[in-house]
Design a protein that fits this description.
The chain is an alpha/beta fold. It has three domains: about 10-190, 3-Layer(aba) Sandwich (Rossmann fold), CATH 3.40.50; about 210-350, no CATH class; about 370-530, no CATH class. Helices cover about 50% and strands about 10% of the residues. It has a seven-stranded mixed sheet, sandwiched between helices. Strand 4, helix 4 (about 115-125) and strand 5 form a beta-alpha-beta unit. It is elongated and about 105 Å long. The termini are far apart. This is RNA methylase. One of its GO terms (molecular function) is methyltransferase activity. It holds the Pfam family DUF4942.
Length: about 525
């Protein structure tokens, strides 16, 4: 009856194998393990190399409620299993395919082909759609230690992917029914549906063709280099390549799901008709649902590809709305390298303008009340007696036209987190105006009732409905005033700076040596032709 790969599994080794699902480390071999397997298995179990049924009998003896399906290739052993009342469902495990889903696969496959059997078990488990599957396997230790073949290398990759626990045991069959001194590996892994998806994802990404990669690089590198540091260009290219592959695979799966649902609905509708309407007919998957799902996918992946999240944080609410409108239009476009290049180029070409619009938006909000009566002035350096009302000083007072209570001032948890949302929005917009000129920290320390500070500014909330703000970075504030002065034509033009000593003296006195830095910033915007 015995063939070269037939080694009936001793109960002690089965016990030790099943214990791996509970603990990575077993204190000592075969010690204190009795009954531990009662905690490990449930539902339906597959034994794909059943032999004469040692593992099947052990499981049914220990856990009578479990249903066990057995597979055995040897006709004599298969007949023996059937005679013992076991459920034999197939002969050759390597050709076994099923719609049935298993909670566990427990196996002692032929040592000469342990890698192939374990790979097939993992493949079956990975295709399950309703439940995770635990796999317990006993293999020749060399199958794990000596990765000389393609199948063994792929097995090693999958064991790593599923965080397998592996324990090497010597003399495991020394006292068994059929003796051998070969070292074995006890393996436990849990194939989770999300891990199977992760593996599908990895294989999809790895499958990106060289032609596609070349296409992406050829069309997008130039656009990337205008706003990404040179050393980061390849990293972003790799990200974009990966995201395109993800998107394409997701669309294929959505389409396949829709097609299956559609075929099912059509078929059940047909057989219901020919059987007098007595077959249950599910609701059809509408084309509207299909289009909406694809639209959501496109919108999500455009945001990921264009990497707008970090940029968005730097914009005021008004500028964010503008960018969102652009992204909304983008979601109508299909995702491919040509469209990616076009949108990268368009959005990033306008990124400096968007940042500066945040600066101007904040400036207008803070100075709107003091500027009204002087709205017709052109140059504040030669048109007004004082400049203080027409630029942001070290302190500003902003009215909210309401009253504030203790909770509005952060009393709920004694921190900035619980400050009234309107005040927080105003403070965040102030901070975003500093983004083009310095790194900005959005965390605040409480220093008194309704009073908070960080390295950019300090502010205090008053119950009468005003917020007083003191700026801690005069150099960056100066840059903001210069940018906005240029925007509103309050400052000398470049021609005046070249030809009018009074204009030059005014700019040097008001803004010092910051002008060069600001001009460098403005040179990235459409104001370039105004810069001397």
């Amino acid at each position: 009856m015995f063939n070269q790969d037939f080694y009936p599994t001793p109960d002690e080794l089965i016990e030790e194998l099943l214990a791996l699902s509970i603990s990575k480390e077993i204190p000592s071999r075969f010690s204190g393990l009795k009954g531990i397997s009662r905690l490990t298995l449930h539902g339906r179990v597959l034994e794909p190399s059943a032999g004469k049924g040692n593992i099947v009998s052990y499981i049914k003896r220990k856990m009578s409620s479990i249903k066990v399906d057995a597979i055995e290739m040897d006709p004599e052993l298969s007949s023996f299993l059937l005679g013992a009342g076991h459920n034999v469902v197939w002969s050759d495990f390597l050709t076994f395919e099923t719609f049935r889903e298993y909670d566990s696969i427990v196996m002692n496959p032929p040592f000469s082909a342990g890698d192939k059997h374990l790979l097939h078990a993992i493949n079956l488990a990975s295709r399950q759609i309703t439940k995770d599957c635990e796999i317990y396997a006993i293999t020749n230790a060399e199958t794990i230690k000596n990765q000389f073949s393609v199948t063994r290398k792929e097995l090693a990759r999958l064991l790593d992917l599923h965080n397998a626990r592996i324990k090497f045991v010597t003399n495991a069959f020394s006292d068994a029914e059929r003796k051998t001194d070969v070292e074995v590996a006890l393996i436990y892994l849990k194939v989770r549906r999300e891990d199977a998806s992760a593996d599908l994802y990895k294989r999809t990404v790895d499958a990106v063709s060289n032609a596609q990669q070349h296409d992406i690089e050829g069309n997008i590198t130039t656009a990337l280099s205008t706003f990404v540091k040179q050393q980061e260009v390849q990293e972003r290219l790799d990200d974009i390549s990966r995201l395109i592959s993800e998107y394409e695979q997701a669309v294929r799966l959505v389409r396949e799901d829709y097609e299956v649902s559609k075929r099912k609905a059509d078929f059940l509708s047909y057989i219901s008709t020919i059987n007098g309407g007595k077959i249950f007919t599910p609701s059809d998957t509408s084309s509207k649902d299909y289009e909406e799902e694809l639209q959501r996918l496109r919108s999500t992946y455009w945001k990921l590809i264009l990497q707008t999240d970090e940029f968005m944080k730097k914009l005021t609410t008004e500028a964010q709305e503008k960018l969102n409108r652009q992204l909304g239009s983008a979601s109508e476009l299909e995702i491919n390298s040509t469209n990616i290049y076009m949108l990268l180029h368009a959005i990033m070409a306008n990124s400096s303008d968007m940042l500066l619009s945040s600066v101007v938006s904040m400036f207008e909000k803070v100075t709107s009340y003091s500027r009204r009566e002087f709205s017709t002035n052109i140059h504040y350096y030669n048109g007004w007696n004082t400049n203080e009302a027409y630029k942001i000083g070290k302190k500003v007072i902003y009215p909210f036209f309401t009253t504030f209570g203790d909770w509005d001032m952060g009393a709920r948890d004694n921190s900035f987190n619980s400050v009234d949302y309107r005040i927080k929005g105003f403070i965040f917009d102030l901070l975003k105006a500093f983004e083009p000129f310095r790194e900005v920290n959005y965390d605040f320390e409480k220093i008194g009732k309704g009073e908070f500070r960080n390295d950019v500014l300090r502010f205090k909330i008053f119950m009468k409905g005003t917020v007083h703000v003191w700026f801690n970075d005069p150099e960056s504030l100066n840059k903001i005033n210069y940018v906005c002065g240029r925007k509103f034509n309050w400052l000398p033009t470049d021609e005046e700076l070249r030809n009018d000593p009074k204009a030059r003296n005014f700019v040097e006195k008001e803004f010092g040596d910051i002008v060069t830095d600001v001009r460098r910033l403005l040179s990235d915007t459409n104001e370039t032709e105004d810069i001397g």
